[in-house]
Amino acid sequence: MTIGDLTGQLQDFSAWKQQQLQIMEQLENWLKQEGLYTSQVQRALRYATLALHRDHVTVAVVGEFSRGKTELINALFFSDHKFRLLPTDAGRTTMCPTEIFQDNSEPPCLRLLPIETRLEEASLAELLENEPLWEKLPIDLDDSDQLIETLLKIREQKLVPREVATNMGLGDVSQIAEEVEAMVSVPAWRLARLNYRHPLLSQGLHVLDTPGLNAVSSEPELTYEMLPNAQARLFVVGADTGITQSDMEMWQQLIRQPGVRQRLGVMVVLNKADTLWDELRTEVEIQKIVERQCREVAEILNIDPNQVYAVSAQKGLVARVKDDYQLEQRSGIPELEKQLAKTLVENRQALIVEQSTEAVISALWNIEALVSSRLKRLRKQARELDELSTKSEAAIDQLLKQAQHDKARYQASIQAYKQSRAEFTAHGKILLDAISPSRLDTMIGEAYKRMTGAWTTIGLKEAMRQLFEDINQQMEIASNQTQEMRRLVRAIYRRFQSQHDMQLAEPQMLSLIGHQVELNLVHQESEIFRKSPLTTLTEQHFAVRRYFQTIVARVRKIFLQAHSDAKEWLETALDALTQEIHEHRTALSQQLADLKLSGRSRSMVRQRLASLDRECRKLEDQLETLQNTRKTLTKSVPEKDSKKLHLRVVSSRSA
Questions:
Q1: What is the Cα–Cα distance from 60 to 74, expressed in whole angstroms?
Q2: pLDDT surpasses 80 at 26
Q3: Which end of the chain is less congested by CB atoms within 10 angstroms, N or C?
Q4: Closest CA to 532 of 172, 63, 216, 247
Q5: Closest to 74 measured CA to CA, from 340, 318, 273, 331
Q6: Are 608 and 2 in contact (CB under 8 A)?
Q7: How far apart are CA 102 and CA 196, in angstroms?
């Protein structure tokens, strides 16, 4: 990058993660010592720690063939080599998706997954773990010629019968070979993984280089998991071609995917800007032309013009190899890399905060509510006990009778709570059963039998339709149960808040709407697949396999996540209230004890008041610590010279 720019950003990000991990560790130990380690905060801390230990950030470079994507990677990340690391040439150069990263657990190498694995049932994730299937080529970092020769393997193609290409799902990307009419040309490799050594890669940077639309969209896991999970995507278009129809299709299908939550920064790179450098025009005129084309690209893609960067990757690489500062600045690469560094780190950081840190903060809010309730209760006890010193024995007897009545009334509320909890649990069993993995496997298994047993294409497509009808029915059952359970939880909380003056945090609520929206969008894609002429023309076995890889695999993922969310909610939804019920019951018993105590000994009353004062101060200290911790966790960027946070552990004092 100027290597230092991104390295510095990644180092700051690493420092922030270490600070967060230190806070999480201190927080966990302190909560355990103070008796505040709830099941909610336990889960939140576990997820947050896992997220913080994931140490890489990913930039995906996406675009149609011949847009200069590979050269852009060379210019942005590997220009310090002073030669072209990744091979480029006119026409198609990247024939398969290529991951570039650094794994110090093994020597540098290039691993290649044969294209024939597309004929197998295994998913790409499963194939990643199947070492014998991969061709592994060692890399000598001190021999640039050997390195370049090895990397040329990524571009290899091979001839296969047209039927085989179709069954691989590559009918759209294959080309007829002139010399053998019955054969077609396809990429030799399905995926390339380059384990390399580089300062940026050592800081956790992963780079994903992709081929054109048809090749990328034929890999569902790449389309729906690897690309959406990248922290930045560079969408590369050509200044010499403008936005073509295939560019637009790629933008809509891979960048602005319907139903895929956008968790990343998107930058549009108008590459080959040097084609607009006309020696017969002034620099001012050329700049106006470039700016106008950037505005047109932004308008077509419906994005902010500031998201479009005009660059010449080829000139930028040449400038850096030859140390030509003026050409480097003119290439536009420095401005792009500056924004890329910022976007990569900020998006990864924001994702950690959204997915995990916010859950910890939410759990701390609930613990604060619990501690606040305890403090309010103790202060009330102290105030009432202090007032008893001026009351007569008759008055104390009357208060004792009232306290006994309050305890009996509270006991009746607990019985009602147990009944409501039993009802809540019954609904929960129906909910979990509706979206259970075993039920889903049964539906998928039956659908597979119907599809493979169908004698006609009509029967095959009807089986696909029936599968989604069954799936939507189960999700509807789950949704109805969720609504009823939310109503129950609110009613239970309101009863104790109004009848017993409890200070309760708002209960967390489960919602399956997000999963239903995702499922509906997959259903739409399923309908497109089902009605596609290509499905009709594809041999049945391979049509079913592709349907399961592209559609059913995503349905399974949605169901499993919905089931996991529901199960976790069922386990924690009533935790805060259960804890408060227990403490309120203890407080009522203590109130009775205080009333009896006040009638026997004034000196014992004073001792009890002193004990309550110490307990109140302890709770006040706990609240302060919790509030300070929340404030520290909400800081998005670590301050350069900030002092380390130390959680002040409040020593327990006996009453």
A1: 14
A2: yes
A3: C
A4: 172
A5: 318
A6: no
A7: 5
**CA distances for 577 relative to 366, 412, 583, angstroms:** 10, 16, 10
Pull the structure tokens for residue 228.
Answer: 């959406």
Which amino acid is residue 511, in one-letter code?
S
**Where would I find the H helices in 435-552?**
437-453, 457-500, 513-531, 533-537, 540-547
Neighbours of 25 (CB within 10 A): 13
Q: Which of 389-403, 459-473, 531-545 has the highest mean pLDDT?
A: 459-473
DSSP, collapsed to helix, strand or coil, labels residue 85 as coil
- Confidence (pTM): 0.71
Q: Which amino acid, one-letter code, is at 381? A: Q
What's the rounded Cα separation, in Å, for the pair 153 and 86? 11
As a whole number of angstroms, the distance between CA 115 and CA 165 comes to 10
Output the CA–CA distances (angstroms, integers) from residue 50 to 42, 45, 123, 349, 355, in the order listed. 13, 9, 25, 14, 11
Q: Closest Cα partner for 204 from 338, 359, 15? A: 15
**Residue (of 649, 542, 576, 629) closest to 168 by Cα position:** 542
pLDDT cut 90: percent of the chain above it: 23
Coil, strand, or helix at residue 399? helix
Report the amino acid identity of residue 21.
L
């017993």: which residue's tokens? 500
